[in-house]
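Hello Y.,

Per our agreement to keep a running log of every chain we model this quarter, I'm adding this entry. I've kept the format consistent with earlier entries: sequence first, then predicted structure.
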Amino acid sequence: MIPISNNIISNLEIVDIAEDGRSIGRHENVVVFVKDAVPGDWVDVKIIKKKKKFIEGKVDKIITPSPHRIIPFCEHFGTCGGCKWQYLTYSQQLFYKQKQVEDCLQRIAKIEIDGIIQPIKPSARIQHYRNKLEYTFSSYRWLTDKDMENSSEELNMNALGFHIPGRFDKVLDIQNCYLQNAPSNDIRLFIKDYALKNKLTFFDIKKQTGFLRNIIIRTSLTGEVMVIVVFFYDDEAMMNSLLDELSNRFPEITSLMYVVNSKKNDIITDLQINCYKGNPYIIDTIGALKYKIGPVSFFQTNSLQGYELYKIVAEYADLKGTEVVYDLYTGTGTIANFVAASALKVVGVEYVPEAINDAKENSFINNISNTSFYAGDMNKVLNDKFLEENGMPDVVITDPPRSGMHKDVIIQLLKMEAEKIIYVSCNPSTQARDIEMLKEKYIPVKVQPVDMFPHTQHVENVVLLTKK
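Predicted structure for the entry above:
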């Protein structure tokens, strides 16, 4: 047993950060995962959970703050589930993201990274970098410490904001969010104020009642704005009144949409999404290309940094105009269209049919004629007939979800023997796992981490592999 007084570990030095963003200390050779700590801190830690091989805790008291600790800029920090690294200098955020990539490649993929890995590419914006946010209406507002101090007052329990981590039924009311450009905050606050003044009911997730459920706000580098209001039930008069007021107050909204979702979950991709005013899409740009974004389209959440990411992919591909390129997990074809001008042909494959429709449309509006897109399960699409019809690839670009590539896809990649594989990933662990399998025929020659999401532990990574 580890001797601990009153469930507190006293004067613990924080020495590192884990992949999930929690900080790490060590007490008598036992790893201690600590919430809200910064490497370099000396802290008293209140134990939350104790296991044989590790302890989980949170900061009870900061004895000596780290030189890398700074004051968070957001009033909601510590309660809101996002931007967990605001207390850490940006240079140190980049340091630990780089370290995460290096650790995964060395430990899991078992490759030597010296000489092939580049310093992480920082984000030009560390605030207001997101182009999409989703907010939830709730009649179960999370009560802050300040609310509890004023408990004698009658509290309004309605909230419009973000879910509290680990609490499906509690929502933190957001006043100002630093993640998205104007007019995002103003739109959210206006809708909430209108709802309260007109006594519109907020969603009760336990009783499955209430009129207002969610809002989704998408902004673009072109200045266009999409707002999607999600209602729990259909009341034409109340819906029209809110949407008209919103449209009049914010003429910059170029796409005003609504949907009625009476299901138990918040997913709207399987529902009819109605265009109330404007276009049923917005246009964003990455470099010189335009992309049409619908209400459920996938698009890089950080548009400016997405451009930097795609430039790295294009550099690694080093296309001469004679290559057949496969873009796996192509989404809405952003990478496929980005590299198409330098290739003979680009073939995109994606599981979601709606995304493939967007990819084709994005080729059309950019006058790109050498792309073709296919929808289907990657494990089944990449068969011998598909390769015969589309040609064997010279270059494969793959950008899978966080879970990485299915083993059968990796087996097919090994069979195809493209000269280059460019692996883009938002999860260095699963990327390293897949690279370890690809090492049978491929050598990693370049690695470039990219910071897409400042103030979080998440990091994007691009690896160029060439055939042995």
